[in-house]
Amino acid sequence: MAPKCKLSYFALMGLSEPIRFLLSYGKMDFEDIRYEFEQWPPVKTSTPYGKLPVLEIDGKKMHQSTAICRYLGKKLGLAGENDWESAEIDMAVDTITDLRLKLSDYYWEPDEAIKQKKKETVFKETLPFYLERLNEQVKENGGYLAAGKMTWGDIFFAALCDYMNGVAQFDITKDYPNLASLKKKIRELPAIKEWISKRPVTNI
Amino acid sequence: MAPKCKLSYFALMGLSEPIRFLLSYGKMDFEDIRYEFEQWPPVKTSTPYGKLPVLEIDGKKMHQSTAICRYLGKKLGLAGENDWESAEIDMAVDTITDLRLKLSDYYWEPDEAIKQKKKETVFKETLPFYLERLNEQVKENGGYLAAGKMTWGDIFFAALCDYMNGVAQFDITKDYPNLASLKKKIRELPAIKEWISKRPVTNI
To answer: Per its UniProt entry, what is the enzyme's top EC class, as one word (chains A, B) (predicted)?
Structure first.
């Protein structure tokens, strides 16, 4: 049996849910360590760059959620078959990250007046702009984001929807049938469905 | 002769300079299209996700600067030799991107009072925090960011320094000898040195 790996993050889905989905998909048993924000300051200094998630795997300490997902994707046979397919996945994933960053920028804005302004831009402009294009991309790719087949990019997207939906307070894929269907397809994979049924419930 | 590729970006170094460094390193002739901000609105709709850079290469249109650099890194023999080395490069590159995003968040802040506050945090906290750790990482990696050898991650860093130095208005590596030496080493590679000597001069 492979040694258990250890994922450290906050008590959120957030940036770690794609990692948890991938570990679950691969039936890789993992310790799911969740820090409350007040526990964070002493932990911060023990991380490579003052951030979470950190994944301890194969005797190594990994950071940077996207790099972790790409690494797991390769281990699980969910990467591109050639450099171009890999690039297609990377482009899709970084585009979803751009969207996530815009949502986060609104969500974590401390000034209420500025937050309201950001909210308007995010919901009226940013979300429709990205989602229309992503929806079309999934249509063109036979129901997946890239390479015409299921890759770690699709799992990344389906998992990050939980955070993005929590921020939006609605299912962001609801008006985008190809995205909704992709999300559903991934979340109904037996190992991922099982993870979703047993994971701790959080809003984002 | 390989067909010329075409890089579209703004009249800046910014996110495209790592691509320009990599193309130059690989002696891949490229058309260096630079849009002024006032030319941008009609161009925006022709890009995959409303953003630049876009690289036309091998008959395909690529977007997302990091994905482009990773793709070029593989083509040029500058990628990891195995999944772990590739992950090390990815972690370093995404860490540098986190730092770059913090600098950009300050630099492009339109409200002058908020900008001054962000400036203080960026220069007193963020920059030293990242640079100390990156400097140590380069020391531990035999003078490179990852995998104990020169990779596309080093070229990405050395090129992005131009943008980050422009934002900071000083050489951010000046107090970090391992970073300064890495930057110098990359910029003295003949093909990159030649690119630097002939490129258009911009501040960022």
So the answer is: transferase
